[in-house]
Design brief:
binds zinc ion; 7-stranded mixed sheet
């Protein structure tokens, strides 16, 4: 039996079993359609000891992260989010040209570029070579490597400590959470601040966001489980923000626990209370989730079957990781969704893993005028509907698949 990634207790309790699924970022070229494709179990567990929700590691991280198709800068709202963060954090912690900012999982420099504009020294750590190259090209100093204790020790040996250590949507994607948070504790300056963002498990469960579960996401945190892990590495969380990004995320603020307890903010205490009240320290709470997922699948298939029977044509928008979990788990192929479109040229001309739905440039929508556009990255639905306002000119409507099928007129 597999052990918990944090506390090593045997994993006995299922959150949800999504069956077999290919790696969600392995988009296929036309040549690859004729070959075999590797599927891995996509089974999320909750640890009965520490309540960390996790997908056990079935795949070597090198297979996932060395050539990654996700470029943060293709999302306008994500860029705006990054810029707002840089303004807020620079003011709150008085960052200057004498400060050192380090971002873990810095992607294509989408965030650090705003610190560079302010003359604040930055270093990005990014394991995906192709994505890191894009950051370096825009003047963001970046090291191509995985982050953990070893990388942190190497940086500290070179005299580097982080006054601000940040990570947005990276902690969830780390296979060895102890090595990562342990590395953070090494790299963080004695009076430095770390901020980490991750999708909030409470929102995932309340809103049936099972499609955010995929092999590249190893951990799914509540505030309570994150606090337990950080505390084990000498880091204390002193503040938290609830953000709308990715269907509901947390941004936690941490510092060395030896700095003293400090003042936990009211909003931190309030969220701890709400999670305890919602049962995040009881197994029954987690056991109920499977039924939520089954119902999401039935609703979506019901909608698609009725629409196709009525002769309606359906296209997808976007080719995000979450779309691949949704489509593979529900068994949705070209029989329901003719094609999908994506702004990222890397994905255009390729096919979704598992379902083999073709990916085109967004112009395809105007050429074929589908009746429905199924929005796969539903967390960006407002931005997408704005970009695609022209779909309504031919009577096309937008469909949000999760948590219940929502048709937007
Ligand atoms: Zn555990």
């Amino acid at each position: 039996m597999r052990g918990c990634a944090f506390c090593s207790a045997p994993l006995r309790h299922t959150l949800v079993d999504l069956g077999m699924s290919p790696l969600c970022e392995s988009y296929l070229t036309p040549d690859q359609l004729d070959g075999p494709e590797t599927f891995y179990p996509l089974h999320a567990y909750v640890c009965g000891e520490c309540f960390l929700v996790q997908v056990p590691q079935y795949v070597r991280p090198e297979e996932i992260f060395t050539e990654y198709a996700y470029f943060s800068s293709y999302s306008d709202s994500w860029l705006a989010h990054a810029r707002a963060y840089v303004e807020m954090i620079s003011a709150r912690f008085r960052l200057t040209s004498a400060s050192q900012v380090v971002e873990l999982g810095s992607n294509d420099g989408y965030l650090l570029q705003y610190f560079v504009q302010r003359g604040i020294p930055v270093l990005g750590i990014e394991p995906a070579r192709n994505v890191a190259a894009a950051a370096i090209a825009k003047g963001v100093q970046t090291e191509v490597r995985m982050f953990g204790r070893e990388t942190a020790q190497g940086l500290v040996a070179r005299g580097l400590r982080a006054d601000l250590l940040l990570g947005a949507n990276v902690l969830a994607q780390v296979p060895d959470v102890n090595d990562f948070v342990g590395g953070m504790a090494l790299l963080l300056a004695p009076d430095g601040v770390a901020t980490i963002e991750f999708p909030h498990l409470m929102r995932l469960m309340a809103e049936g966001q099972f499609d955010t579960i995929y092999h590249e996401h190893f951990s799914y945190f509540s505030l309570l489980s994150a606090e337990r892990i950080f505390a084990a590495h000498g880091l204390a969380i002193f503040d938290v923000e609830e953000l709308p990004t990715h269907g509901g995320s947390l941004r936690i603020f941490a510092r060395h626990a030896r700095q003293g307890p400090g003042d936990a903010t009211e909003r931190l205490k309030d969220l701890r209370r709400r999670e305890r009240d919602a049962g995040f320290e009881r197994l029954e709470t987690y056991a109920a989730f499977t039924q939520t997922v089954h119902e999401c699948k039935r609703r979506l298939l019901e909608f698609l079957i009725e629409a196709r029977r009525a002769g309606k044509r359906i296209a997808g928008y976007g080719a995000p990781g979450k779309g691949n979990t949704l489509l593979n788990y529900c068994g949705i192929r070209e029989d329901f969704v003719e094609y999908t479109v994506d702004r990222n040229p890397y994905k255009q001309g390729r096919f979704l893993p598992g379902t083999h739905i073709p990916i085109h440039a967004p112009e395809k929508l105007a050429e074929t005028r589908p009746d429905y556009v199924l929005i796969l990255p539903w967390n960006l639905k407002n931005e997408i509907i704005e970009q695609l306002a022209y779909v309504r000119e031919w009577g096309g409507r937008f469909v949000v698949p999760i948590p219940r099928v929502e048709v937007l007129e």
